[in-house]
Amino acid sequence: MAEISQDTGSHKKGKKKRSKKLPTRIDLTPMVDLGFLLITFFMLATSLIKPQTMEITMPSDKKVQDEDKTVAKASQAVSIILGKDDIVYYYFGKTEGAKVLKTNYAPDGLRKILLEKNFEVAQQVEALKVEKNRTRMKEEDYQKKLSALRANKNAPVVRIMATDESNYKNLVDVLDEMNICSISRYAIVDLEDPDKQLIANLAP
Amino acid sequence: MTAMCDVAFLLLTFFMLTSNFTKKEPVLVATPTSVSEIKIPETNIMTVLVDKTGKVYFGIDGQEKRRQLIEKMASIYKVNLSPEEMKKYTLLELTGNPMQAMKAFLNLPAESRDLPQNNLGIPADTTNNEFKDWVKSAREVNPELRIAIKADEKTPYPVIKKVMRSLQQLDESRYNLITKLEGAPGRE
Fold first, then answer.
1. CB distance A53–B19 less than 8 Å?
2. Given an 8 Å threshold on Cβ–Cβ distance, is B153 in contact with A45?
3. In this predicted structure, what is the pLDDT of residue A19?
4. Which residue of A has its CA nearest to B182?
5. CATH 3.40.1130 matches A77-118+155-202
6. Does B118 have pLDDT greater than 60?
7. Nearest of A154, A159, A124, A158 to residue A142 by alpha carbon
8. Contact B121/B96 with Cβ under 8 angstroms?
9. CA distance B47 to chain A (A)
10. A167 touches chain B (CB under 8 A)
11. Would you say B94 and B59 are in contact if contact means Cβ atoms under 8 Å apart?
12. Is residue B86 very low, low, confident or very high in pLDDT (cuts 50, 70, 90)?
């Protein structure tokens, strides 16, 4: 390819025999060097991995009227309070006289508790996933069925409250657990005094 | 040699066509991990960056849009910015300074712009909430913007609360939290 043959009529009876030349070879090394240099540059300067994102929808200030506020049954309510040093406090049911328990973000901590609470839905979602893999369900259908399952009326309603000592990671972790445990009804709410009192009583 | 050259240029073409350059950010932020696999779209993004110390940075994509944004902000806060200064702003992905300090910030040499003392963070408190004006102006400039919050995992919650509260007051109730992909959860 890189040889340019110089067929300059060797049959002519030339003046000298030198006209029967060797083919000229172009040295490609600098070009390859340049090519690899540019490859290196592009490899380093690109971001092949796109960041993931988590979509959340917060209630807006204006639209929420009292009639729209969902009142959760006490038996379904779970309150999670994010404390400092990666401690999670949680209790079931009403705030008054609640028994506050402590846990952490490990898989056998918060996730276990939520999965137990959301056992019914979690099991159905799991079954749906198996079915999806088996029957090659379309992604759209899967999503539709998934959201139908998650809208289960008996599923727990989670209130997430964060203390000022907690950090962003804690919040994302909890939102993530909601996702993993197929809990669709949750809200991030402000920490109120009764709840503060509960933790204050607990922590010595 | 010819074959090697061919391969090199083939790869080069591939990288040139697929590349989207890493955005330059004024601070390094370690985002938390999650199992969410939704990818962030590349265009029409309003990025709210919150660093470990709780400083808020703000930026939108598209140079032309940024120009309109800074013009709007300059007129709201009555800051006199020259066309050159605005031009400098349009070249920055993210900025984290109150408008009063913006002029001085834009006139800094490029290499000292990332120093922590030159980035004061956009105020987002209840009394002095410049952040809300940024979001509002950006929304006016480009109504299709989606909000992406990128915060460091060690950011104290009150700062996040401030940002979320400001967004809530503006009726911006849908937004994305940028995370890294975590390994598969232990459940499966």
1. no
2. no
3. 64
4. A52
5. no
6. yes
7. A124
8. yes
9. 12
10. yes
11. yes
12. confident
